[in-house]
Amino acid sequence: QVQLVESGGGLVQPGGSLRLSCAASGSISSINVMGWYRQAPGKQRELVAPITTGGSTNYADSVKGRFTISRDNAKNTVYLQMNSLKPEDTAVYYCYADLTPTGWCYSRTYWGQGTQVTVSS
After folding, report:
1. Where are the alpha helices (DSSP H) in 31-71?
2. Among 24, 33, 10, 25, which residue's Cα sits nearest to residue 82?
3. Chain centroid to CA 105
């Protein structure tokens, strides 16, 4: 049984910072890509940033220069440091991982439960 558990969401003021965490647990053979999506009401889900096992990253234009994704491979955990937050960053943030469970011959995508981030004064 594999699951991803998110934490760190909440209410912050514009210009503030927030750090999201997502830990994968269970019987896992390997993890390739981990990352973050976000979705605001009435809007399409947006890929915020992925990060590979080797540390390669790619950011959405809307968050470049403000957000930083990182991962701790030993802990199977991915982080999203969000600085200079704007009201338009308000959304539910979902982490994901492309991984292979122990004993399986293929990989699949697992999702976190989502965490609400609200940026408002």
Report:
1. none
2. 10
3. 25
